[in-house]
Automatic annotation (TrEMBL):
PROSITE patterns: TYR_RECOMBINASE. Residues 167-343 form the Tyr recombinase domain. GO terms for molecular function: DNA binding. PANTHER family: INTEGRASE_RECOMBINASE HI_1414-RELATED, PHAGE INTEGRASE-RELATED. Pfam families: Phage_integrase. It comes from Pararobbsia alpina. SUPFAM superfamilies: DNA breaking-rejoining enzymes. GO terms for biological process: DNA integration; DNA recombination. This is Tyr recombinase domain-containing protein. Keywords: DNA integration, DNA recombination, DNA-binding. InterPro entries: DNA_brk_join_enz (IPR011010), Integrase-like_cat_sf (IPR013762), Integrase_catalytic (IPR002104), Integrase_recombinase_N (IPR010998), Tyrosine_recombinase_XerCD (IPR050090).
Amino acid sequence: MASFIKRGDVWRALIRRPALGISMSESFKNKADAVAWATKIEHEINVGKHKVGSSRTVADAMHEYEKRVSPTKRANRWEAIRFAAFIRDFPDLAATKLTDISPQHMGKWRDARLAGVPARGIKPVGSATVLRDINLFSHVFTTARDEWKWISESPFKGVRRPTEPHPRVCRITDKEVESLLSALGYEHDQTPKTKSARIGAMLVWAIETAMRSGEIVDLRWDRINTEKRFAHLPRTKTDVPRDVPLSARALKILEQFEPLKKEFDGHVFGVSNSLRDALFRKAKKAAMLPDINFHDARREALTRLAKIFNVMELAKISGHKDVRILQSVYFAPTAADLADKLHQTST
């Protein structure tokens, strides 16, 4: 039931349905108008026009997701950054009620991200970035719909997704690796005591093992079996633990780090992901290699390992569940590589 309060010459109608998360009020010059408004709104609630959580906004949904869902993921910090950026760059959209948000809203947001909004200092971004945001925000809305019952439909339903960009095929050459190692101050025969030098060792380790950056950061001494020459990874991007074989060069890196074994709380390299990213960016700028990414080392590693292992063995090492992704994104042999292999089989 609605309630009505008179203050001076103004009548205020209040409607509260705590179980539905609905709280609405409006002011009128006379009680008759207040009653008419309340009757209309209560009818709309009863027929389902005002859904659960109708007073909640898009920003509320993102905050709730960040509090309840993000902590269960490895990418929780990245998700918090994306939510904050959305609320900062699109404040009107963030303040829109969930019941009012529509596919048209999200379509305009997508276009603004791709084209940029110079007047508001928002730079354009690539389709890969927008696709990652769509995946995250879409899950926010589906969670609000399926678990929290805040909405009845996701506003991303029917929204066109940007075209998937072509996967990177860049391979990192030995010369480029040495330039980066020089910029990082890494020496192959010395214990890497500086943070930059340890990142250099991480780069070599990535090329030798095909491990992801986060997996290398998390690597601990107690998960390495030097006798059987493998490293155990209990936490991976796919949430499936795996064992990674270690090459002779990878074992040599471990020998370099032996004097530091009691440092870094049991971690091998003692560098955080954020620091690795910052110092690697600085190094590639110093080496005049702006187009190189740390992740390119994983592609290079898998392309090299493909000369030794078949695709199923390669997937076991890399942790890929879908070998099509392994083939299209990470396996990048050159025409010369394939020609050499053809020549070897014909002689």
